[in-house]
Design a protein that fits this description.
- This protein is α+β, with helices and mostly antiparallel strands.
- It contains twelve helices and five strands.
- Strands 1-2-3-5-4 form a five-stranded mixed sheet.
- Strand 2 and strand 3 form a beta hairpin.
- Helix 7 packs antiparallel against helix 8.
- The protein is elongated, with a radius of gyration of 42 Å.
- The two termini are 66 Å apart.
């Protein structure tokens, strides 16, 4: 149940309904007393009874709103008191109009419409039995009032449902906007961390690694007794310490996916968690420690290619292979899905499958990305990155940069 307080307009309408019913009851009682009706006291008592039953429900509305059974019981008691008033005075029929609204508001529509019809019929019957002058208005008045009440309540309910749909849509849009903003902030933070890690690696770390190698070469060329050897060794150790510190910065700025293991372990977790087709992961060659920029690029390309497989390929199986070679590292993502034409323009399909972004990552590291696919023949995405020169030198000297 909606626990929100009623709108100001609804509160005003309810107050008007209360005032209308009490005013009509007071009118019936005053006319009975002023007209010298034989049952004037009984009419006043019946009007007070109707008002008391109505007030009991109006003061404590929660139970009857939560339960159709409670609402039906309250309306039944109110209707019985009103029928007693009708039996004593024909003026009681005017209170049928507010009763229409109560029945339409509190009862399910399949019950409310018969109740409104029965109330109108009772009002007309009472007017006839009291020997009043019968005219077209005798029948048109109650029926027209019932029609107006039904149209008003149905129109209000339609407007309320439309208002609720709009409110839910606005809340959904607001929640979506908040989620998008959070996702954009997270993506921006990750992108900035990757950029800083790449900049530190490509500039500071690479420079310190080169300095260390040059100082090592200079240290080997100097005679053992030369005093400059001590200074060269101290400079090389300082460069080595600063290189280790730079690498710690790079690791701290690396994506969270790579914080809990190596690139191979991260890719294996990615394959195991992929929805849809079964994805196998394999490693070939002897793994070497890669720069953070390489690990980030290979991980992002694997994520993008695997997402394309899940979303577009309709594949039964897929595989990711990480290959370490003498001078390069390669990543292959293959699937047995529907495939596509790599040379066909994909702007009209609203896609591109992220291939431009993959190629851009590969080119930024001096690598290449190739796509082999054909409709109905599956897809193979291969990226090859050349190992950086300091890493190659380190792998041959036993001290990777």
């Amino acid at each position: 149940m909606d626990s929100r307080p009623p709108a100001p307009v609804l509160r005003v309408l309810r107050l008007c309904l209360h005032a209308l019913l009490i005013g009509l009851l007071a009118l019936a009682a005053v006319k009975a007393v002023a007209g010298g009706a034989p049952h004037a006291f009984a009419v006043v008592a019946a009007a007070v009874l109707v008002a008391a039953v109505y007030a009991a429900g109006a003061v404590s509305p929660a139970p009857r709103r939560r339960s159709p059974r409670a609402a039906a019981l309250w309306l039944g008691a109110l209707g019985a008191a009103w029928l007693a008033l009708l039996a004593l005075s024909p003026d009681g029929l005017w209170t049928a109009f507010p009763l229409y609204f109560l029945q339409l508001q509190l009862l399910p529509m399949r019950w409310a419409l018969p109740a409104v019809a029965a109330t109108a019929a009772a009002a007309i019957t009472s007017f006839v039995l009291h020997g009043q002058q019968i005219s077209a208005g005798t029948f048109i008045g109650p029926v027209l009032g019932a029609g107006v009440a039904v149209a008003t309540v149905l129109g209000h309910q339609a407007l309320y449902r439309e208002s609720e749909r709009r409110r839910e849509l606005i809340e959904e849009l607001i929640a979506t906007r908040v989620e998008l903003a959070a996702a954009e902030r997270a993506a921006g933070t990750l992108a900035e961390r990757e950029r800083l890690a790449r900049e530190i690696h490509d500039t500071l770390a690479q420079g310190l690694s080169s300095i260390q190698l040059l100082l090592r070469a200079a240290e080997r060329t100097l005679p053992d007794g030369d005093p400059a050897v001590v200074h060269v060794r101290q400079a090389r150790e300082a460069a080595q310490d600063n290189l280790a510190e730079a690498r710690r910065f790079v690791r701290a700025l690396s994506p969270p996916d790579l914080e809990h293991g190596s690139l191979a372990a991260t890719l294996e977790r990615l394959c195991a968690a992929a929805p849809g087709p079964a994805v196998e992961f394999g490693v070939s060659g002897t793994p070497v420690a890669l720069p953070t920029s390489y690990e980030v690029a290979l991980l992002r390309i694997a994520q993008s290619a695997l997402a394309n497989t899940v979303l577009h390929a309709d594949a039964g199986r897929a595989g990711i292979t990480l290959s370490f070679m003498d001078t390069s590292v390669a990543l292959d993502v293959v699937d047995d899905g529907s495939g596509f034409d790599p040379v066909a323009p994909r702007a009209k399909s609203g896609g591109g499958f992220g291939l431009p972004a993959m190629r851009s990552r590969a080119r930024s590291l001096g690598g290449t990305l190739s796509v082999e696919s054909a409709p109905g023949q599956g897809t193979a995405v291969a990226i090859t990155l050349p190992l950086p020169q300091p890493l190659l030198v380190g792998s041959t000297t036993g001290d990777p940069a």
